[in-house]
Amino acid sequence: MRVDVDPETVGRREFYALLNSVVVPRPIAWVSSRSADGVLNLAPHSFFTVSCVTPPMVQFTSVGRKDSLNNVEATGEFVVNFAAEPLYEQVNASGTNFPPEISEFEAIGVTTEPSRTVSVPRVAESPVAIECTLHTTLELGDCTVVIGQVRHIALDAAVMDGDHPEVTRLRPLARLGKDEWTTLGEIRSISRIRHSDWPGHFTPPGS
């Protein structure tokens, strides 16, 4: 038995909450930006992913018109700072609806660090920073998708294992539904099966 939900017959907030509860877990783009007046902004966006490999691009979605969107459109730059478990309280606090003239960096007590390729600073306490210039924005209903071209990635050496970051050192945060967050649970590794090797290590149900 299933529960059927039609977006045309329920309210926006109710359906938004339902989507947030089933599209899980969601990585968090902790976006730093600067307004046209020079005020720094820092905000979490949990509609976030990679957009393109070559050239490298990432995207986040502004639900409604937020300061992050206004700032990126005004300056053409932003940084995606990695939302790590030790920064849980600060990431959540940066989602407070401060007025545009207040900098979340100062309000929540995190440190700025100069970026290498953009004028917007990074969060010094974050283990990874993805520096971006604006590629394009796409308006979809009441939201705007912001796509940035990656110009530089800065990683804390402490999270590295050889040439790649190690996920248990990164300790990523993710959003769930309601006011729920999560961290790493069980980590599993499984290789993709080439057609020439089929079925390989896959065992079909009932076999």
Keywords:
207 residues, alpha+beta, Pnp Oxidase, Chain A, seven-stranded antiparallel sheet, three-stranded antiparallel sheet, 34% strand, globular, FMN binding, Flavin reductase (DIM6/NTAB) family NADH-FMN oxidoreductase RutF, Flavin_Rdtase-like_dom
Question: How would you characterize this protein structure?
Answer:
This protein is an alpha+beta fold. It has a single domain, classed as Pnp Oxidase, Chain A (Roll), CATH 2.30.110. About 15% of the residues lie in helices and about 35% in strands. The strands form four sheets. A seven-stranded antiparallel sheet has the order 3-2-6-9-10-5-4, covered by helices on one side. The protein has a three-stranded antiparallel sheet with strand order 1-13-14, with no helix packed on it. The chain has a two-stranded antiparallel sheet with strand order 7-8. A hairpin with a 5-residue loop joins strand 13 and strand 14. The longest helix has 11 residues.
Task: Detail the topology: elements first, then pairings.
Elements (H helix, E strand, L loop, with lengths): L11 H11 L3 E2 L1 E6 L5 E6 L2 E5 L4 E7 L3 H9 L1 E6 L5 H6 L10 H5 L3 E2 L8 E2 L4 E13 L2 E13 L4 E2 L2 E2 L1 H4 L3 E2 L5 E2 L25
Antiparallel strand pairs: 1-13, 2-3, 2-6, 4-5, 5-10, 6-9, 7-8, 9-10, 11-12, 13-14
GO molecular function: FMN binding; oxidoreductase activity, acting on the CH-NH group of donors, NAD or NADP as acceptor
Cofactor: FMN
Keywords: Flavoprotein, FMN
